[in-house]
Specification:
The protein has 11 helices and 11 strands. It is an alpha/beta fold. β4, α10 and β5 form a beta-alpha-beta unit. The relative contact order is 0.15.
Length: 342
């Protein structure tokens, strides 16, 4: 047996390296990551999570209709407007939906700032505009909006599926554009096609592959995912990582996990609707998962307001416990507010 063992040649793994060598590398790596930091496009997320970094695999989750795709669109807009190269793979959306959402946000902003006085009785809303019902009143300004969009977002690319799209297809695209992109968004991961009949196993394999690609290319990826229709914690006001549909490994593999839920306890004022943002995972600093943000969504201009209330969930996760003293806000919550004016 020993003679046989002596005849075996053991080779050093190519990825095995002395600790002292890696110590010398890590500072340069940190500095490079800091310089390449991207924005979520939402003040609360940027402050709570420090932004989006290379190698990040970020998971957005919410129930159907809560605003996952719109949050991804906000993130895409913020980074493209800053000159970053963004590639948005819209597997669920209909053709031109992302462009439509972005156009409406710019149009609505212009309308409420300068045009409302000319149309005092017009009820501007996304649904009527999207179905062409407001074109007679506002169609004349769209060429100007389109020119503005071309100037604001010259580095935003979109892809809409026209047939099967697998993780292997995404891998080919990601490797092909790795030198021409700063951020990839996949909306959403549950719309990937799989050959494996076991959906959970296929989903785990796909997300692991995307995580490996993020590390290999140094390009962050945002995945959008569905939550279960029947929650395990039915009374939780903001979903946890265990509520993602399919394999429980999805949030385990991700570096950061963010869930959204409408705030049922507070009614909206006008077209402003309160929404919970839960930091369900932060691999770099687990203490950030103690916090939940209560943000106002401004439906007039389709975006989240910068100021937010900060709090945490009760042990049963049925109640939002807001911070009531400014001295209790964490150091990073620069735009954080306290309730009751305390």
């Amino acid at each position: 047996m020993s003679a046989q063992m002596n005849a075996v040649e053991f080779k050093l793994l190519s990825s095995l390296k002395l600790f002292k060598e890696r110590v010398l590398e890590e500072r340069a790596q940190r500095k490079a990551q800091g310089a390449a930091c991207l924005s979520f496009g939402v003040k609360f997320l940027d402050e709570a999570l420090g932004g989006i970094y290379s190698n990040d695999l970020i998971l957005y989750g919410a129930k159907t209709g809560v605003g996952k795709t719109h949050l991804a669109t906000i993130t895409a807009m913020a980074n493209a407007a800053a000159g970053k190269r963004v590639h948005f793979f819209a597997l669920e959306a209909e053709p031109n939906e992302i462009e439509r959402r972005i156009k409406y946000q710019i149009l609505a902003d212009c309308f409420f700032k300068t045009l409302r006085k000319d149309f005092p009785t017009l009820n501007l809303n996304y649904m009527d505009w999207a179905y062409g019902k407001l074109d007679q009143a506002l169609g004349h300004i769209e060429p100007e909006i389109e020119e503005m969009l071309s100037s604001l977002y010259p580095t935003l690319w979109t892809f809409y599926r026209s047939g099967d799209f697998t993780v292997q297809d995404f891998e080919k695209q990601m490797l092909a554009i790795q030198g021409q992109t700063d951020l990839l968004i996949l909306d959403h991961v549950h719309y990937l096609d799989h050959e494996d009949d076991n959906e959970n196993r296929a989903m785990k394999t796909a997300v692991k592959k995307i995580r490996d690609l993020a590390i290999l290319t140094g390009k962050p990826v945002i995945l959008i995912g569905h939550l279960r229709k029947g929650e395990r914690k039915a009374k939780a006001i903001a979903p946890g990582p265990e509520e993602f549909h399919g394999s429980s490994d999805l949030p385990k593999i991700a570096t950061k996990v963010i869930t959204l839920a409408p705030c049922q306890e507070q009614s909206g004022q006008g077209n402003r609707w309160p929404t919970y943002f839960r930091i369900a995972k932060c691999r770099v600093d687990g203490s950030r998962t103690r916090h939940v943000g209560l943000l106002g969504f401004n439906a007039d201009i389709n975006t989240y307001e910068p100021n937010y209330y900060l709090g945490k969930l009760s042990p049963s996760e049925e109640e939002f416990l807001p911070v009531t003293r400014f001295g209790d806000l964490p150091f990073w919550a620069k735009a954080g507010q306290v309730m009751n004016g305390a």
